[in-house]
């Protein structure tokens, strides 16, 4: 009988899955250069593996994340440019985090001409707690301002300098919240776009060195 999936079990399974995947030669990946296709392959394989062992609610595009009950989303990215996109909900996410944790698989894809297979060498598998999913420069800057006795005008000026995508009313409300409740330090680089663009270079560097960022592999 499959048992309920927990965050701890998910982390354990991600670790062992990544190690096994690094040794697997896959004919369907030979010659594939589309990162989205590689990501879909890996996510589907991991989900199939989990479904054979655990019970859990799978996410869909309406729910927005892969494990809504656990508050975790999977991201698969190449080591050559470790980044991905995610839905934009509000500018607040850049300051207080995405609202869910991230399980990030970082691969280096190699093709073998002799066997005509592709292999995903899983270079990093990192779990980022939701509290650490905000933007590093934004959160570190705001924390410095609050430590230096900033007022509302200082915070609003900072939002303007960083071109935070907010209207005037939302900016004022966020500025008041920052003064009341300074954000935790985030470790993602979150770029403004119609969707957030998440970059994972700092997360990979800091995994296992700071609280809230776990190196699974």
Describe, in plain words, how this protein is organized in 3D:
With 217 residues, this protein is an alpha+beta fold. The protein has helices spanning 7-21, 35-51, 92-96, 136-147, 152-161, 168-180, 201-206, and strands spanning 3-4, 25-26, 54-55, 72-78, 83-86, 101-112, 117-128, 189-191, 196-199, 213-215. It has 2 domains: 3-88 and 100-134 and 192-215, MvaI/BcnI restriction endonuclease, catalytic domain (PvuII Endonuclease, Chain A, 3-Layer(aba) Sandwich), CATH 3.40.210; 137-180, no CATH class. Strands 2, 4, 6, 7 and 10 form a 5-stranded mixed β-sheet that branches. Strand 6 and strand 7 form a beta hairpin. The chain starts with a strand and ends with a strand. The mean pLDDT is 94.
What are the key terms here?
single chain, 7 helices, 217 residues, PvuII Endonuclease, Chain A, elongated, three-stranded antiparallel beta sheet, 2 domains, five-stranded mixed beta sheet, 10 strands, alpha+beta
């Amino acid at each position: 009988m499959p048992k309920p999936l927990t965050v701890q079990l998910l982390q354990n399974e991600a670790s062992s899955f990544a190690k096994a995947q690094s040794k697997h030669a896959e004919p369907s990946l030979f010659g594939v250069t589309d990162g989205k296709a590689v990501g879909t392959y890996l996510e589907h394989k991991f989900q199939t593996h989990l479904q054979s062992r655990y019970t859990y609610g799978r996410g869909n595009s309406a729910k927005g994340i892969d494990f809504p009950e656990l508050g975790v989303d999977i991201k698969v990215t190449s080591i050559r440019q470790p980044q991905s996109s995610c839905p934009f909900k509000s500018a607040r996410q850049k300051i207080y985090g995405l609202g869910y944790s991230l399980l990030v698989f970082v691969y280096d894809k190699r093709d073998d001409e002799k066997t005509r297979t592709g292999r995903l060498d899983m270079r990093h598998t990192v779990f980022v707690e939701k509290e650490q999913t905000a933007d590093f420069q934004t959160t570190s800057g705001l924390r410095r301002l609050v430590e230096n006795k900033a007022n509302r005008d200082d915070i609003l000026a900072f939002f303007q300098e960083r071109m935070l995508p907010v209207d005037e009313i939302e900016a004022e409300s966020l500025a008041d919240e920052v003064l009341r409740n300074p954000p935790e330090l985030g470790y993602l680089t979150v770029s403004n776009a119609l969707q957030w663009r998440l970059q994972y270079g700092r997360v990979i560097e800091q995994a296992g060195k700071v609280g809230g960022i776990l190196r699974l592999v």
